[in-house]
Amino acid sequence: MLRRSGRPVILAANKADNEARRQAALEFYELGLGEAFPISSLHGTGTGDLLDAVVASFPIIEETPESEAVRIAIVGRPNVGKSSLLNALLQQERAIVSPIPGTTRDALDTPLRWEGQEVVLIDTAGIRRRGRVESGTEKYSVLRAINAIKRSDVALLVLDATTGVTAQDAHVAGYILEEDKSVIVVVNKWDLIEKDAHTMTEFTRRIRSELKFLDYVPVLFISAKTGKRVDQVLPMALKVYQQRFERIGTSELNLIVQEAVVRHAPPSKAGKRLKFFFASQVGIAPPTFVFFVNDERLVHFTYVRYLENCLRERYGFLGTPLRLIFRQRSRREK
Ligand SMILES: Nc1nc2c(ncn2[C@@H]2O[C@H](COP(=O)(O)OP(=O)(O)OP(=O)(O)O)[C@@H](O)[C@H]2O)c(=O)[nH]1
Ligand SMILES: [Mg+2]
From CA 170, how far away is CA 173, in angstroms rounded? Predict the structure, then answer.
């Protein structure tokens, strides 16, 4: 009956409380349902591998329903050089423009092929600060930029090197994060800066402190005008795109959590300490993790940050936001 249903079937052999019983679970091969996962509901063993198998059988939900292309939005304040960057990217010899019929929903979408990968670059009009009196067209351009961010996988947040980070830049960064998009900071007009050996480090430090929630984000210093380091933009964007889809296996993830807890004790309140029971990655793009804990009220944001850093130490997730969700395990299950 199960086979006829056409649904994926995963066999769990329960009550495999000891090694002998785990071995015995191999016999279930005879059912013709593939490998049996020996588990023990009583001891909670084997459930990690079982969950991995369950998750692996899920149909892959296409994040990019309109095409297979990686969509990269170029956003930032007016006049920082977004359109110039687009043109500079198109001038690179390896970027061959190849129009794909039916994918261009907006006059500003430029499809191209980069080393075998379909890419759509989305140029936008500069986003001004919220709250200003906006003319009709300006308002429209803001909406279009926000829409471009929504449609993208990766956003290039373009800054003007001569003005540094402004409140508007933080504002645009906020839009990108609200949408859980991956991001690269591109500092443009680097040709106009008088530099010494420390300028780039100092600039990077300032960007990281002024946009502090973006500390996992790569920063590139370019000149759309001279073409300097423009060739690093697309490879970096594609790298960031790939890390958006990275998965941590359940056993590996739980090891990371155990080690994190040993290195740095979780917070406690009124004599009660936060305890981790089990963690699982439940989603990609952005990578989303659920942590089952004894009491979610004990979760403090500094510890969330710390856990996030532990995940990034091992997996990078360059330029990609992570979602960490904490769930209280109900008493019944204890
Ligand atoms: N020196 C220098 N000038 C640049 C660079 N990139 C762009 N510019 C100049 O900056 C001005 C604005 O460039 P655009 O590319 O139109 O800027 P934009 O971000 O598309 O502007 P909006 O579409 O109005 O939001 C132009 O005069 C460009 O020539 C650069 O790397 N160096
Ligand atoms: Mg422009």
Answer: 5
